[in-house]
Structure formats: C-alpha cells, structure tokens
Amino acid sequence: MRRIALFILFFAYNHFVFSQAAKYSNDFLSIGVGAKWMGMGSVGTASSTDVGAAYWNPSGLLGIDNKYQVEALHASYFAGMAGYNHIGLSYKPDTISSMAFSIIRFGVDDIPNTTDLLDGNGNISYDRLKTFSVADYAFLLSYARKSPIPNLWIGGNVKVIYRNIGKFASAFGFGLDASARYTLQKWRFGAMFKDVTSTFNFWTFNADELKITVNDSTFNLAPDKNLELTLPRLILGVSRSFTINENFTLSAEIDADFTFDGKRNTLVSSKPVSIDPHFGLEVGYKNLIFIRAGANNIQRNSGFSNSNELTFQPSLGVGIKFRSICLDYAMTNAGSQGYSRYSNIFSLRWSFDALKF
What we know:
Elements: H1 2-20, H2 35-38, H3 53-56, E1 68-77, E2 82-91, E3 97-113, E4 130-146, E5 152-165, E6 169-184, E7 187-194, E8 199-205, H4 207-210, E9 212-214, E10 217-219, E11 227-230, E12 233-243, E13 248-259, E14 274-285, E15 289-301, E16 309-322, E17 325-333, E18 342-352
Antiparallel strand pairs: 1-2, 1-18, 2-3, 3-4, 4-5, 5-6, 6-7, 6-8, 7-12, 8-11, 9-10, 12-13, 13-14, 14-15, 15-16, 16-17, 17-18
C-alpha cells in the first residue's frame, strides 16, 4: 500500500512539474566551468577530479590530491557584451570525504534604461538616462564521500539560484543534484543527475517599474505567474586514459545528456527523451603541457536547402601545469550566427595543503 501511495505521489509530482516547466530555465548553468573541460567539448562527468568537479560530477572531488584547491574562470561572450565568471574552493579533510563551495555568475552590465528618458513635459533628457544589469547567480555547496562499495564514490550539490533584472524583477531558486562515479581499472564511469528534485525559481516583479504608459495605453504589465521550474537532466559519461610512452599520455571521454521535456534539436530527439552526446580528447606531455579538443551541441539543421546537414560546436584548448598551479585556455564556439562566433575562456587553478606566510 505504501508503494502504491508513493507511486501516485511521484506521478502527480511529475505531472505538476512537467506541465509548468520552462524548457530552458536556468540555462546559464549549462555553460560549464573550467577551461580544461570546456576545451574538451564540455565533458567531465566521468574524469573530472579537480574543484570543477563540483559542477561536472561532485563525486570527483575525492580525486583531489591536496587539502585545498581554488579555481577561477573568466569568459566574455557576444563581443564582450556578456561576462561569465566562476570561482570555486574545495576542502578535503580526509581520504574518504571532500567538499566544495562554488559561485557562478553570468551577466550583462551597463544596459541603458530608456524608460525614464522622457521628463514630465515629454522632452528627451539624457541626464535621466541610467543603466542596470541583468545577472544570474548560482551558489553550489558540494559534498562527496566514498561508499562501502569499492571504487564507488557518491556526491551531490545543494544549489541556490539568484536572478536579477535590474529594478524590474528578481528571483530566488533552490535545487539538488546527485552524482556517482565508479572506477574499473583504467575505465571511469560517471553519472550526474542535475536538478533531481527539479529546481524552483520564485520570481518577484516590480509592477510599477515594468508599467509604461504611452498615449493612455499601458504596456509591459507584470506577468501573472511567478514560478519557474528547471526539470531533471541525467548525464552519463565514460572515460579512459592511455599511456603512449614515457612522455605522452592520452585521455578520452564521451558524455551523453538525457533530457525528458519533449523533443529537442539534438542528435537523438524523441518525445520521451532526447540525447545530446559530446566528447573530448586530451594529449599530455610529461604532465606539463596539454593539448585538448572536443565537440558538443551536435544538431541536424535543415536550412534553406532542406539538406538536413549535421552541425556541431567545436572546441580547442591548451593547458600548462607548473608544480601546484595550472593555467588553462579554451576557445569554443558560442553560437552559429554573428561575427563574434568564438569565445576565449581562461581559468587558473591552484592546489595547496596549507597557507604559508
């Protein structure tokens, strides 16, 4: 009887969620962190073992060798109009557990607000022109622990979302991620269940600021609905490392994103589930210099000729490791249109056991 009740509750919950969810809610959390992984086609579910694993697969935090690790990332999008930043700090108190705290921000700043450009007499006054920002924030508290099963690590995230559109609207959100990672000889398998409970964003609108009256006509009324949902997404990955010789190593990974919100323009598209594969390679030289490449966002585009051609988003990267410091660079395609198609991404990572002054 209890199982039947739980099944009915789960069915009702999913029906409620799927009927109200926006397909691309909180999409800024799909960009990624760490130039290393973004240069490899945004993989990392199976092989990430740095502080960026808090995003890709929190279970991988157990692979960090040092007690502390900090990473910072910066990227500019759309010819510098938008900025994307990430900073993460991990702490490994012992050999069976690890934790991390991460902050992600994607925003457009200094947007002119022309709603106050006219004075009381209807004249244009540039002294009244002000600017505002549109920014999305995510705060991740991550934890990983070894399970009783050998070679199996488990972990998860607690996510707090804050989204702000100047003085016009803002939202707070909350969600959970769950993850696991298993190692079998040189093979690594990862699973990341993002927004496993669905992520809920609650919006607050400033009706007075949104309302604009022109010739006795009112525009931009505040929306009636203030709840936005991000549906669960399952990401599975497998990776393997190869030793070519005493100087060169090769690592490869392939991930697949499973979404359950109807058809998407992905390589495998259907109503029950859509699958978006992406893959990456890394060649290392003496654990000092790394060259990376990958591809993601694989789609079938018909275009004007209805040729149904296959397109993808390529990425390239390079990394340098000197003692406990890693500097990574990635160049990836931010979109298929426009003159500024590629974005330059930099990240810096530092591992240490104690601060010495």
